């Protein structure tokens, strides 16, 4: 998770509240516009080669069948 909000504590609190076990990072410089255009939240999923495979701005339903299927397909790619 890359947190570009002004309050990193809020991001950490959200991850803890939802029991997410992913690390949270903050950039030390400008994030490329291919990844972040200024809209919060923004979801970017990279494949094993670092290629952007999913880019979504706004809130998303990460429990949806479609999202779960896309993630499972990426995990299973060789």
SSE order and pairing:
Layout: H1 8-17, E1 42-46, E2 52-57, H2 65-76
Antiparallel strand pairs: 1-2
Overview of the molecule:
By secondary structure, the chain is an alpha+beta fold. The protein has 2 domains: 1-30, no CATH class; 38-78, no CATH class. It is 28% helix and 14% strand. It has a two-stranded antiparallel sheet with strand order 1-2. Strand 1 (42-46) and strand 2 (52-57) form a beta hairpin. The longest helix is centred in the C-terminal third of the chain and has 12 residues, at 65-76. The protein starts with 7 loop residues before the first helix and ends with a helix. The relative contact order is 0.14.
Describe the structure in brief:
With 78 residues, this protein is α+β, with helices and mostly antiparallel strands.
Comma- or semicolon-separated keywords:
single chain; 78 residues; alpha+beta; 2 domains; two-stranded antiparallel ribbon; 2 helices; 28% helix
Terminal Cα span = 23 Å
Uncertain regions spanning at least 5 consecutive residues: none
How would you sum up the major sheet? 2 strands, antiparallel
Report helical residue fraction: 25-40%
């Amino acid at each position: 998770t890359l947190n570009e909000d002004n309050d990193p504590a809020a991001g950490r609190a959200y991850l803890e509240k939802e029991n997410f076990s992913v690390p949270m990072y903050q950039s030390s410089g400008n994030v490329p516009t291919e990844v972040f255009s200024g809209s919060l939240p923004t979801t970017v999923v990279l494949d094993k080669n670092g290629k952007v495979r999913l880019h979504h701005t706004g809130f998303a339903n990460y429990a949806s069948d479609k999202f779960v299927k896309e993630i499972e397909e990426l995990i299973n790619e060789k």
